[in-house]
Amino acid sequence: MSHDISALRKFVSPEIVFGAGSRRSVANFAHNFGARHVLLVSDPGVADAGWVGEIESLLTEAGIQSTVFTGVSANPKVEEVMTGAELYRSSECDVIVAIGGGSPMDCAKGIGIVATHGRSILEFEGVDTITNPPPPLILIPTTAGTSADVSQFAIISDPNRRFKFSIISKAVVPDVSLIDPEVTETMDAYLTACTGVDALVHAIEAFVSTGSGPLTDTHALEAIRLINRNLEPLVSNTADPYLREQIMLASMQAGLAFSNAILGAVHAMSHSLGGFLDLPHGLCNALLLEHVVAYNFPSAEDRFRRVAEAMDIDTRGMNTREIKKRLMNRIIELKRHVGLEARLAQLGVTTSDIPYLSGYALQDPCILTNPRKSSLKDVQVVYEEAL
Ligand SMILES: [Fe+2]
């Protein structure tokens, strides 16, 4: 009998409450953690939409004080994390709640780390660097895509290096995720498309990742199936509550898959791109996706066949070349239907940026679980193809 330790798999997840209205249980959960004073992290857009005020009222009604921090930009910066942590300390907070997209949620994770270590967030780049448990964290996602609310990732931008760095640790999995499709109703079609394609990339990268396994595969495939069927209709009708719920469910499943199976070259290359040009994460992923799939395909043919099947492609009787072609065509079609077809050059990337972008992409931990080993030259070629 063999006991191959490399075959062991673990699965971490927050406590999840999924469904319309789940955000309203925020005060109960905060109370269970003994909260007296919550730091409520969000951004100006989510505050304008009224969600921050609602959470504040729910906490107040339960006798819990709160201090609001909305100084978070689209790619959360080192400075913003440090400012939020200082506010957490000076306000004597004991629990963190964040409501928003990936940026406020990642910023909240960073604030929690700094709050218990008292050092710069820059010192926690990488895998398993956190020694002290952060304060209780409750996350309420307002987009269906980033899945920071279930993942063991926090992505922070370092403007000095023009680089987005990853913190990967079980310690940044929140304690509670309140996944409420009602709060995604303030997303416009463009944000719905960007975040939805991000979720699709999570599911595909998790499924072909070298860290994939039976605990994550079913979540990844179900997420691909749900996004393939529901994202285009949702982008044309963002008010539909049924479609919103399906995509929120897909995002959650994709998040559970990638949090545990990790990601691949799309994310490594898009983190590098997003840090360099401060671009929306989902857009960066969308522009790179089919180029990375083409590059990876020969190293994970059987896995990509199952991705194609989850995208409703009947692969019976098809050879590998046909499967690859059909899968690429479907990805390109889906992107076109949701309005994400630009090329990197249109976003301001030039040929001379590629060596810089490629160097940082190779330093991203997501590159390690990519199914095909990638050299600097390989990454450069894929960027060139997306240019
Ligand atoms: Fe992502």
UniProtKB/TrEMBL annotation:
It comes from the Bacteria. The keyword NAD applies. Residues 192-386 form the Fe-containing alcohol dehydrogenase-like C-terminal domain. Keywords: NAD, Oxidoreductase. Residues 14-181 form the Alcohol dehydrogenase iron-type/glycerol dehydrogenase GldA domain. One of its GO terms (molecular function) is metal ion binding. Its cofactor is Fe cation. InterPro entries: ADH_Fe/GldA (IPR001670), ADH_Fe_C (IPR056798), ADH_Fe_CS (IPR018211), Alcohol_dehydrogenase_Fe (IPR039697). The keyword NAD applies. Gene3D superfamilies: 3.40.50.1970, Dehydroquinate synthase-like - alpha domain. Belongs to the iron-containing alcohol dehydrogenase family. This is Iron-containing alcohol dehydrogenase. It comes from Marinobacter santoriniensis NKSG1.
